[in-house]
Amino acid sequence: MYENLPERSIICIDMKSFYASCMAMLEGLDVMTTPIAIVANFTQPGSVVLAASPPMKERFKIKTGNRRFEIPKHPDIKLFEPKMSFFIDMSMAIIRLISKYVPPECIHIYSVDENWVDLTETAKLWGPPEDTAKEIQKAIYDQFRIPSAIGMGPNMLMAKLALDLEAKKSGFAKWTYEDVPKKLWPVRPLSEMWGIGKQMESKLNAMGILTVGGLANADLNELEKKFGIMGNQLYHHAHGIDLSTLGEPLVKNSALSFGKGQMLMRDYHTRKEISVALLEMCEDVMRRTREAGYVGRTITLGLSYSRSAMTKGFQRSKTIKVPTSETLVMYNVCLELLDEYFAGEPARQLSVRISNLEPEHSIQLDLFDVKKEQRQILGHTMDSIRRKFGATALLRAVSFTDAGTALKRDKLVGGHLA
Fold it and tell me: Which of 17, 252, 6, 246 is nearest to 116 (CA)?
């Protein structure tokens, strides 16, 4: 099965407890011995823990996703609010360090703290790729005092699996195709494997597939019949087979869409408050849709309630006849969905999305809507002003009310303090 497959030297490198490591470096602390937690907002007891150092996880059982009120009062614990601009600067500094070993096209940035690097052609300069990987790991620690874990494999998928399933505990792991049956196939539950979420896991479990080995030995035709191209991909990933290059994602999804989600800064109790945030979010989503040159037909609204609520949230979609990139069209559809499904409980998280896209120039003008072209021109004009003078150069009046979030979020990076 593996005779004609790529045999490259790919590493996937993950910065351990990245936010906590950055703050430890900044404060002159040792992230491996100091209990550190990065908390989104000190003023809110329910604020989320964004990162925790290993001692915080081991000694106090506090990890990413816990709440501030769950952190015990202990003199050894160090709490910090995020410094997102600094974290991003550190991430880019690490990329610049890696680029001393390989050209930019050999680096694939996956997230602020995780990257793939192709070391296949580095042997003549730096020696065996495995040694180079460990040298990069050492250089990152020596220069930034940030520990890392590295997975290595013959393709991007295998490098990622080696990282997630072994190297995050051992520091370094190299997997080959021969390792698949003994290291990958026993993995259970299925969601432990990168690329398989809880929903897909449930569907596979319903088919009697409980382990990665079970997936690898399942009937390919049955998987393709049930899941389409994703079934084919799952089957081959279970064998460690991946033909992706560093310029494309491992899990391919042709369903292009534009969306935005946000955790509200407090509970929103009324339709009026929620509608203000929705209008701001639709404005942002449609701006990006117009800038990319698309219009869309399917609009999705998601709403999650406060933890104190007695009911679950919802995610519902509506497809309109005429594709659009107009903010108010999307907003009005979101209001329709809100009116139909909102249970009246305090809302804490919102998301909006437009999908089922097509090129903007493909739409035909409506003879009975003579102002449609004018609204399109106005939308692009507003986008141009915001690009030139900033996102808050033009705001709707509702953004200046107590329910508005645009002004506050303009000062944030990635939803957190800069």
Answer: 246
